[in-house]
Amino acid sequence: MSFTRITVVGLGLIGSSVARAARARIEGVQVTGYDADPEVRATAREIGLCDEIADDADAAAREADLVVLCVPVGAMGRAAADLAPALPADAIVTDVGSCKASVVEALAAALPGHVIVPAHPVAGTEQSGPTAGFATLFNHRWCILTPPEGTDPVAVDRVAGFWRALGAEVETMAPDHHDRVLAVTSHLPHLIAYTIVGTASDLEEVTQSEVIKYSAGGFRDFTRIAASDPTMWRDVFLANREAVLDMLQRFSEDLALLQRAIRWGQGDALFDHFTQTRAIRRSIVEQGQDDARADFGRTHE
Ligand SMILES: NC(=O)C1=CN([C@@H]2O[C@H](COP(=O)(O)OP(=O)(O)OC[C@H]3O[C@@H](n4cnc5c(N)ncnc54)[C@H](O)[C@@H]3O)[C@@H](O)[C@H]2O)C=CC1
Ligand SMILES: O=C(O)C(=O)Cc1ccc(O)cc1
């Protein structure tokens, strides 16, 4: 049974994409939007993002049969607690947070007795805000559900159906496992981008405008990632601290090996490593899982 009254809380990149995709792809759905920021609510009204924009959490919650929480992971507990008093007992709650164990805990504490099916659509861009979203964002992208043990399987199926209706492929995982996988595939790459762009800007005094002038190469790709939302990523690193620190330790060890190979002129070791990483990139591209920007280009042709 599909949902007919969906409330999206947090109308930024992901929330506005969920609202757009739901209205475009689920027949007869009524989408209500809510954001704590009045300017975001005003913009959402101006661009006609939802069928209705609520001015407070009670009005947002009252009629919902599905709530999709699309706020930064550090704000999930607060956003859920604000909805709790008016949320119908049979409403199902899902979210889109980039890490899951801390969100599962925060939502369970804020919404005792409610059915919660946490989710992470692994799709996005470096943009944020209500005008940045687009209806095709989730097309052919993974959405990982991390229902805590004992979650009603019918509710899990309904939420899986919702994400499939938005175009995503659905997979299920334990929250801790999700957080370790995403620490290496998403969180660590963002940390590296934030670091290298910072390093280059520290050097800028020496190199004058060369950092900008010659940034057509690899550095430019890092600047895109490093332009990602500061609040969102602060929250991700604090919430997924253990897994990120563990992956960072492994990364540092691997970096030290490459450093050593360069120092001692071990060309074969470098060549073998780069050959392996090239094969990984090619297999990702073959599976059609190259980056969100490429997908953005394709879907906006
Ligand atoms: N940006 C990305 O590429 C992806 C982000 N995510 C996750 O999606 C969530 C949202 O990220 P974005 O849409 O990129 O952020 P965003 O910054 O574009 O939007 C977040 C919105 O939440 C609102 N908000 C904050 N606290 C609130 C509260 N207590 N109640 C109501 N509204 C509140 C903000 O005013 C803002 O408009 C995050 O949890 C993030 O980890 C998941 C996949 C991809
Ligand atoms: O813009 C990019 O390259 C991303 O990696 C987007 C992204 C950011 C956070 C997520 O949890 C999922 C996807």
TrEMBL record:
Matching InterPro entries: 6-PGluconate_DH-like_C_sf, NAD(P)-bd_dom_sf, PDH_C, PDH_N, Preph/Arog_dehydrog, Prephen_DH
GO:BP terms for this protein? tyrosine biosynthetic process
The answer to whether the entry has keyword Oxidoreductase is: yes
Record's keyword terms, sorted: Amino-acid biosynthesis, Aromatic amino acid biosynthesis, NAD, Oxidoreductase, Tyrosine biosynthesis
Prephenate/arogenate dehydrogenase domain location is: 4-292
Q: Does the keyword Metal-binding apply?
A: no
The reactions it catalyses are: prephenate + NAD(+) = 3-(4-hydroxyphenyl)pyruvate + CO2 + NADH
Q: What class of enzyme is it?
A: oxidoreductase
Pathway field = Amino-acid biosynthesis; L-tyrosine biosynthesis; (4-hydroxyphenyl)pyruvate from prephenate (NAD(+) route): step 1/1
GO terms, molecular function = NAD+ binding; prephenate dehydrogenase (NAD+) activity; prephenate dehydrogenase (NADP+) activity
The EC code for this enzyme is: 1.3.1.12
Report the sequence similarity comment from the record. Answer: Belongs to the prephenate/arogenate dehydrogenase family.
Protein's UniProt name: prephenate dehydrogenase
Species:
Sphingomonas yantingensis
What are the leading ranks of the lineage?
Answer: Bacteria, Pseudomonadati, Pseudomonadota, Alphaproteobacteria, Sphingomonadales
